[in-house]
Every structure is written in C-alpha cells, then in structure tokens.
C-alpha cells in the first residue's frame, strides 16, 4: 500500500479506528520484520490520535525492553510485574488506567502522562510484547480504545514476524 494514511477529518473515535485498522493491517501484513511493523503501528496510532506517547515494550527474559515508539524518550527496561506494563504482562490482560497516580507502582517516564492503556500481544499463549499508550489528559481511554487496540494486537499476532 502507499505509505499515506487516509483518516476521516472529523470522525468519531470509532470511525477513525475503523478507517485506521484495515490500513495498518495492509501495511504490516506484507512485512515480516517485527521492528518495522511495530514502528509503523506506533506512528499510525500517533498520527491518527495525537497521543502523547505510543510505543512497545518487548519481552526479553524477565524484563520488558523498550521497542519502537513515538513521543518523548522513555525508560528502557521494566521488570516482570512492575508498573502498568509489567502488570499487563503478569496478568496477561489489558490495563486501562484512567489516572496513573492512582495505579500502585506506576512508572512515571514523564510527569506529563496522566492516563494510560497497556495491551499485551501473545505468541503461543505467552505475552511477547505490550503496546503502551499514554495521554496527557486524565481518563482519556475507554472500552472503545481497548477493543480496537486489542484488535490491532490480534492482527500483529497473526502476522508472521521475525
Ligand atoms: N508508565 C509505564 C512505563 C512506560 S512509560 O509510560 C512510556 C508503566 O508504568 O509501566
């Protein structure tokens, strides 16, 4: 596909996700390199929604290691079970955090981050990376974001990557 996203200018959040996801699927399904695909997913989400920080942490042994992202520099390693990302890994489920200060053990890479969603992706039933999205607005993510971001991770899981 052409390397340009086509998104509704004044669409609802659902309409933007509905337009975005098939384009991301087309973009990553023709590419097997994991870093390339993660980089484009992060860029696409940032371009569509202008999130403060969008990126990935990839499982390496007992840690998550920073992967491709868009936004300010971030912490590079997160231990299993630590922070929102490590909790999503440990619990194997999405963490929707309306107020990061109310999340016990939240790791503040930036004081500007106010709310956060972390969505795990699986290979052979185990978490192999997490998508982390931060907003500088409180309560910025809801079940709609969760559903579409989980769909996006499902598409990534189906893409054979190296
Ligand atoms: N807040 C995350 C750390 C990563 S940064 O937000 C980019 C956490 O608590 O796991």
Verbal overview:
This protein has one domain (13-161): Beta-Lactamase, CATH 3.30.450.40. The chain has four helices and six strands. It has helices spanning 13-29, 34-49, 83-91, 143-158, and strands at 53-60, 63-70, 77-79, 95-97, 115-123, 126-135. The chain has a six-stranded antiparallel β-sheet, sandwiched between helices. A hairpin with a 6-residue loop joins strand 2 (63-70) and strand 3. Helix 1 (13-29) packs parallel to helix 4. The chain is globular, with a radius of gyration of 15 Å. Methionine sulfoxide is lined by residues 53, 74-75, 78, 83-85, 106-107, 109, 113, 116, 132, 134.
Short description:
With 162 residues, the protein is an alpha+beta fold. It contains four helices and six strands, in the order ααβββαβββα.
Radius of gyration: 15 Å
CATH T-level fold name: Beta-Lactamase
Give the percentage of residues in beta strands: 25-35%
CATH superfamily: GAF domain
Average pLDDT metric: 95
Residue runs with pLDDT of under 50 for 5 or more positions? none
- What's the CATH architecture name? 2-Layer Sandwich
Gap from first CA to last CA: 21 Å
List the ligand species. methionine sulfoxide
Along the chain, the helix and strand elements come as HHEEEHEEEH
Shape: globular
Q: Could you give the order of strands across the largest sheet?
A: 3-2-1-6-5-4
CATH class: Alpha Beta
Helix/strand/pairing category: alpha+beta
Count, helices: 4
- The helix content is 25-40%
Beta strands, count:
6
Largest pleated sheet = 6 strands, antiparallel
Total of domains: 1
